[in-house]
């Protein structure tokens, strides 16, 4: 039994693996600077998971860590049973040294599960596209501010724009007559158009490629894509646990 911990820029993503199966997943907040690893096992690990699962996890349960937040990595590295997964451990070809480990793992997990070529779209804190060709070689990708970040920066960096709800259940009017809806319109329609354009460009290069979507805003993105571009949406695979599948591929080699 081992724990997968993916540290993203918004939160911690946990997965509990037993044998080959991912038994449970849950999210928690980042560790605050004043917390030490000794405060940890009880409160943090068991936060938002059932008592039954919590009881299976102990301080000695190995934690495999993939982080894109260096100061969080530092805090977790003081834990005696944490092992950090590094880019060099991922067999993907043509990676560049500063590639995010989350992007590499998600792409590797997706390719191993559904085959290469593969494009992964991660609608997380940042919204990223990461693709590999049929030789399991990184073609490259793109990074833009994620949906939540776009809403937040707009309100934080302007004098009178409000913080608007990110969860847009139904699509706003594209041409809006109020501020809140105008912000929602601007962000959601350009994000969806951007995603559509990146997918079209990828399919030009790799017409047979599968595309997998993950991240905190993935469900929202797919819901709206279904409405606006159904022919694209029906060809997307939604897999929130993609990074964990990538970690499983790497960790099972280590544990064997
Ligand atoms: N319960 C939640 N907590 C935080 N963010 C959430 C939640 N539900 C949806 N989101 C959305 O998910 C985004 C973060 O995606 P996520 O994949 O969790 O981030 P990361 O892996 O970068 O930490 C936020 O910007 C927000 O728009
Ligand atoms: C692009 C990211 C910020 C995405 O992080 P996330 O939204 O998942 O928290 C992260 O993968 C990262 O820091 N990457 C390093 C730069 C790169 O991948 O080229
Ligand atoms: K991520």
UniProtKB/TrEMBL annotation:
The active site is at residue 102. It catalyses: (R)-pantothenate + ATP = (R)-4'-phosphopantothenate + ADP + H(+). A monovalent cation. Ammonium or potassium. InterPro entries: ATPase_NBD, Type_III_PanK. Its main location: cytoplasm. One of its GO terms (biological process) is coenzyme A biosynthetic process. Homodimer. This is Type III pantothenate kinase.
